[in-house]
Design brief:
This protein is an alpha+beta fold. The protein has a four-stranded mixed beta sheet with strand order 2-1-3-4. It is rod-shaped, with a radius of gyration of 62 Å. The chain starts with a helix and ends with a helix.
């Protein structure tokens, strides 16, 4: 079999032309399209990466803002709580102070009322005792209470002479005051005893209805009282001692 080299050459030429045409009009556009698509994909991936980075930055900013807001809210809540606790403590302190003040005022009022009642009771008892004493002296001894007190005080002045002189200073006048007028005999006895110790002092006797029953000596800056009030104070002290002893005995019995 013979080979037609012309035909072979023509077919080779046709094949080369076909390859060139395919490369020129088919493969190149496809490769260019692939390159363009690849570049577009890379660009979009770059944009996506940039968008992701921006999103992460925004997210971090939002998280920081949220944390700051939560911290500020926590600070505000803590401050409000502290202010509420401080106001509560202040109101409680004011209430306790007011209650304590009211309690002290009430206790003072009760103490004052108790003292008034005790004084009234003592006065009433002393008045009754004085009335009975006066009546007994008048009925049995034909004398008065002030008169008997004057006779008794005639012997009570001597132990007090130095104190009276020191307190009275250079006084030249002295006055005995009594609730009721002293009998002449009582004035004479008391005046004699007084003049024996104070010979240079002029003595006078006066009455004072507002004064408690008894005698009061006034001389210069000195004042000595022998009145029922003095004995009432002693009576009150004795009664308080007895009441305290009774309370102590009751407390001991309750403890037992």
């Amino acid at each position: 079999m013979s080979i037609d080299w012309i035909t072979v050459a023509a077919q080779i030429a046709n094949f080369l032309v076909l390859i060139w045409l395919l490369k020129r009009f088919l493969y190149r556009p496809i490769l260019d399209g692939i390159d363009a698509r690849e570049a577009e994909i890379k660009a979009r991936m770059q944009q996506a990466a940039e968008a992701e980075a921006a999103a992460k930055t925004t997210e971090a900013s939002y998280r920081a803002q949220i944390a700051e807001m939560q911290s500020a809210q926590s600070d505000v809540s803590e401050r409000l709580r502290q202010e509420a606790e401080a106001e509560r403590d202040m109101l409680l302190a004011e209430a306790h102070a007011r209650i304590d003040q009211e309690r002290k005022g009430w206790q003072a009022h009760l103490t004052e009322e108790g003292q008034k009642y005790s004084t009234k009771l003592h006065r009433a008892g002393a008045g009754a005792l004085l009335s009975l004493t006066r009546k007994a002296l008048i009925d049995l001894a034909d004398d008065t209470l002030e008169g008997r007190m004057a006779h008794h005080l005639a012997s009570q002045i001597k132990p007090m002479v130095s104190d009276i002189k020191q307190a009275s200073g250079p006084a030249t006048e002295a006055v005995f005051t009594s609730h009721a007028a002293l009998p002449e005999a009582a004035q004479t006895a008391l005046g004699t005893a007084f003049q024996a110790d104070f010979p240079d002092v002029t003595l006078a006797f006066q009455t004072n209805p507002d004064q408690a029953p008894g005698l009061v000596l006034r001389m210069g800056g000195a004042q000595v009282a022998w009145t029922v009030d003095t004995y009432l104070e002693g009576l009150d002290a004795v009664m308080q001692d007895h009441l305290s002893m009774g309370a102590d005995l009751k407390a001991h019995s309750n403890d037992a």
